[in-house]
Each structure stands twice: as structure tokens, then as C-alpha cells.
Design goal:
The complex is a heterodimer of chains A (165) and B (434). Chain A is mainly alpha-helical. Chain A has helices spanning 3-42, 50-71, 87-122, 134-164. Helices cover 78% and strands 0% of the residues of chain A. The chains are: A mainly alpha (165), B mainly alpha (434).
Chain lengths: 165, 434
Amino acid sequence: MTFLEKFDRFNRRLSGGFEIIGLGGLLVMMVITCLDVFGGKFFRTPVYGALDIVMLCQLVAISFATAYALIIGRHVSVEFFTALLPERLQALIDAVISFFGLIFYVLIVWRLIVYGHSLQIGGEVSATIRIPLYPFAYGIAMAGVPVALVLLAQILKAIVRMVTK
Amino acid sequence: MSAVVTGLVGIVILLLLFLLRMPVGFAMGFVGVVGFAYLADPGPALSLLAQDIFEQFSSYPLSVIPMFILMGTFAFASGISRRLYRTTYTWVGGIRGGLTIATVLACAGFAAICGSTAATAATMGKIALPEMKKYKYNNTLATGTVAASGTLGILIPPSTILIVYGILTEESIGKLFIAGVLPGIMLSLAFVAVVAILCLRNPQLGPPGTPTSFKQKVRAVNGIIEAIILFVLTIGGLFLGWFSPTQAGAIGAGGALVIGLVRRQLTWRNFFEAGKEGLRTSCMVLIIITGATVFGHFMAISTIPFALADWIKSLPIPPMALMGVIIFLYFIGGFFMDSMALVVVTIPIFFPVVMQLGYDPIWFGVIIVLVAEMGVITPPVGVNVFVIKGIAPDVPLHVIFRGIFPFLIALIMMTALLLAFPGIAVFLPNLITY
């Protein structure tokens, strides 16, 4: 097994694991909202802080699902133009575009850590049940790491395609 | 460089990155942060980037999107789509072109519990295409019907495009949903008429299926009851003000799960696969919206939307002609871009213009959906066509596109009708008092 294959396998496992965490967040969103509706409508006891929980679960769900969605090509992109170009040029474009993506995600991870630190210093909490927000900022920064790794793998694969085609 | 020129350069670079296959959400975020840093300062630009991501991902108004997407995927996993098709098949399958008419009706039914065109086309395509193949239906008609009827998914509520439009423009999602009902029913009937006319002219296109008795038809009603219950519960609850949009979506998703359990159709595997599918689609949509938010800050600081709105207002052209131009731009844009991305990118720019022209925002939302429907079935980026190609790999792409053409004409006619009679869209929402 080549280094790239091993790297790909590692990315799939890591991103797949993160996706499971995201799925958990999504399902909790649904369950909490349903309980809030039933509790509120039938027993006059809505779930305390349901909005806070839903918002933070969505944060986890989306950020932790990004990397796997990138691996399986679920993020919308315009395909028709580059498909018309020669294979080697396509590989070069893929390398450059993935490089931009990598820079972008490294910036995101860095700034989310800085943002998390500012939330921690400021003692920011959610509106109702006062959950500290900073761990979530650090969490989504961490969820950006596999995205950056997937983009790095895409750059390396594109370079290999450029050389071998 | 002035702010407006910088903004225009940013738009050109964005389009270039789109063409070079950068994911749409990433491209908007990337250009947005670089452009903002250039016009303001790198420090605030990077701070805003982190803040935008955190706030959009944790936005409660946006949580309506994953909930309604989850409702659609769980409805599929619970076998609701299959039973819907069986019902419509039993009702009209025995007549000439009946299986395609059944497909249109089943797509309309599934659209009432699913807000995505691709999901509706994929779901019904998997069920309807093998049946039509069995009865030797013409490939052009069969594939074109499923691809086109799948577009009903974003017109008949719930609709992901209307949700995103409502969030971007701060319009009531409930009103937007209700606005899609009448045009959705009319477009479904128009699609049925297209099939009927085609099969009348050439009976070989769609031979009759197995005839069914009156008793079987009555018994088949059972198959649509659960879809009706889900629709009434979610959209009705929203219409009557029982639920917020997020609550309606969550109740719909939970309801679809309960139906699957009661019907004993839901396995753990189905459940997880449907959940993951819903998560991936939600992630894709929210990343685009977040990218658009970052890009929107850049556009705002460049003052382009306001300058454009003022410029267009000053043009000596009647508002209807300008609206025609805007619709045409969307139509052309739909050829090259995913509809959701197109709406997210362009609404912040065109919506102020449309408001300046004095048009109803709810009506414009429905118009946008109709044009988006054209976008998902026209080449080269017709998502629904690729979905159908994936289900029927033996049918060449050009055959599917040819099959879509009559339905595209129906869509264009529907758009023209809505331009001439805006009441079709705004009549029902005007009944809501909240």
C-alpha cells in the first residue's frame, strides 16, 4: 500500500468517525425539538433551553460532517468546464484549487481557535441554559483539521496525476 | 481601486473559481474574506470569518433546513415513496401513458413531504423507471418525466430553496410554503397534460399497464394516507401557527420515523443511511449559506448591491421588462450552476433590485423556484438529469435531455402565467394574518 493510499484510508476513517459525531448532533436536534413541541403543547412543559441545545447540536452536526462530505464530493461545484480540459491541466487546476482550499481551512482553524479563546476570556455562554460556548468553537476548529487533511491529500493526488499522466 | 471595482473583480474571481471546480461554498468564503481584507483590513476580515462560521452553523433559523431535509430522507427510508407510487400506479397505471402520469402524481405527492428536487427524482426514479421499462415505455418519455417531475420537490412545500430564500430575504417561510401550493398543483397538472398529449399523439410512447378494478383503486388509497398525514401535520401546523418552521420539520422527520416503525419498514441500516444522507445534504447547504454570508459582507462593503439597485431603478425601462431580464439571467445561470448555489449567490444582489421595482417578495420567491426548476433539468449542469442517468445508466444523456424538453416548455409557460397573474402565488399567503 502506497503512502497516499494509507493517507486516504486514514482520512476516510477520521472523517467517517467525525461524521458519526455529526449524525449524533443532527439526531439530538430532531429529538429535542420533538420533545419540546410535545412537552409544550400537551404537558405545558417545553424542554428548558431547547433552542440552545438545537443551535449547538447543529454547530456540531455541520462542522463534523464537512470532511466526509468533501471526500465523497457532496459539496456543490461546477463540473462542466474543467471536464473539457486535458487530464494533466485538470490535475494542475485541482492541485491549485485544493491548495486555495487548504489555505482557507488553515485560516479557519486558526481563527476559530482565536475566536474560542476570546469566548473563553469573555465568559460567553448560551442564552438560556448558559452552556459555555468556547468548547464548541474549539470543537469546530478541531473538526476543520480533517477537512484540511483531505484537501492536502487532494493536492498530493493531483500532483501524482500530473506526473503520471 | 474603488470599492465597486474591487467588488466587481471579486465577482469575476469568484466565477473563475467556480469554473475551476472549487466547491461553491468554499469559493464564496475564500473570495469574501480576501476581498473584505483588501477593502477593510485583514484583522477584522479574519475575525469576521470565524464569527460568521460559528454564528451560521449555530443559527436557529437555519436549523429548519436540516429538519426538513431529514424529513425527506426518513420518509424515503420508511417506504412512503414506494407506497405512494403503488397508489398512483393502481389509479392510473391502466390507461395509456398511465405509468408516467402515475410518476408525475407520485412525485407531486412525495414533494409534499420532501423539499429537494434531486431527492424526489432519485426516490421516484428508482421505483418508477423499472416499472416503465417492464411495460416497454419509451426511454425518452420515461426518463424525462422522472427528471422533470422531480423538480416539483422544490415548488410543492416543503422546499429547501424557499426555506433558503426566506432566510436570506427575512420573509415568512410559512407564507412562502403556502405560496408554492397552487403553482405546484397547477404545474403537476400541466406535467400530466404534457404526458397525456404526448401519448395521445404517439401511443407507442406509453402503452397501458395492467388494468385494476374499482375495489383495488379504493383499497390503494391506503398508500397515500401517511403522506397526507405528514403534509397536514407539518405544513398545516406551520400554516396554522402551531409550529415554528424548525419544529414543523422536526415533527415531520419524527413522524416519518414513526410511520416507518409502524409499517415495519425501517431497519437500523436504513435509519443510519437516511440520517447520514440528510446530514450530508444539510452540510452542503449550510456551507453554501455560510460562504455566501462571508461573501455578502464583502459585497456590502463594496456597495455593489446598492449601486446596482440604484442604477437599475434609474434605467428608463418598465419594471416588467427588468423582471424579464432578471428571470432570463437566472435561467441562463441555471444552465451552469447548481440552483441552490445560484439562489444563494444572487439573491443578496437581485432582491434589493426587485424590491425597488415594487414586486411582492413572496411572489418573487415562487418565480425563483420555477427558474431554479428549469436549472436542474437543463444542460450542462442539470442535477436531476445526472441523478436519472445514475439510475438508468443505459440511457444516453441526450435522450434524457430530449425527454425533458416538453416539460421545460410547461415550466416556461407556468412562469409566464405567474408573471401575468401574480395572484396565483400570493392569493393563499395573503389569507395568513401573522
